[in-house]
Amino acid sequence: MKEQVLRELAVEYESQRAANRVEERRRLGEAAALDPVIGELIARRAELFRQRVRAAFDSPERAMDISKELSGEFTRIASELRERLIAAGLPGDWLQPVYRCAACRDQGYVGEPIREMCECMRQRVFQRLCRDEALGIRADENFAAWDERVYDDSPTDKMPQGQRAEMIKLRNICVEYAETFPNNEKPCMLFCGPSGVGKTFMLNCMAQRALERGFTPWKLTASRMMAILRDAYFERGDPERARLLRESPLLMIDDLGTEPMQENLTITQIFTLLNERNARRAHTIVSTNLLPTELLSRYTERLYSRLFDKRLTRVLSFRGADARRIRA
Ligand SMILES: [Zn+2]
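That is the input. Now the predicted structure with zinc ion docked in place:
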């Protein structure tokens, strides 16, 4: 998929460069219409340039001298051009090459001899990945499709008001989060509860709402997240995706606790990711089927405290019977 994005961007940059040349010709036409001498100076400069290339080609041993001889003439033309442009009411640099990015001049790459992706290109790859990941979010799971009737409303010992009333409360909190994102009181949420009570469905609803509001959330399973982090750690795979994990404005990590556990790596990487995201004020929602005690023993005190940090995180407890079973 990265290859596909790069191919698309290569085409985009090429047409940007073509558009730049069109803009340069338009500017030249405008300037020459105001002062015909400007057009003549440009033509003279182009002719000098051709001479220089030809002369250097014919007698390479004199290339340096020829270049020196002509550079005085180039400088004279440049300063006369500048004066005439300003006199015509245009900016002095009006006829300089046009480009969107000064660093790479719209090539998308910088550096010699080692070619590196320019920051402008990197940014565009990132935006594409964001958009593609957000497009993967299920459209049919949204708050309008959220149906409280799948939850039992009869009171139990643990839930005197019944599961349905509790779930409605949780839904309202999640609707409010999705509606006010990114201006939430607390940037993070932790969904705890057994499987089948609707945590993933709720995440999808929130992601969908954020998408509708013009944001690009990213929802993925903890297993996939770990695969990306592991690949980045071993410097294989796609580094842009690891960057997306760190920078995505709204990251939803589903099913924490189901990812394979690698000694010294999994915990450190999750901890580092959450901290980096927090430093960037990026929002993170985590869901897990594990009980707090299980989280503590699996992830150590350090990560556990981070997950349950009350200053940053609102913990929602999804309780009760499996809604899928009730529905069936
Ligand atoms: Zn650039």
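The domain at 136-327 is CATH 3.40.50.300 (Rossmann fold).
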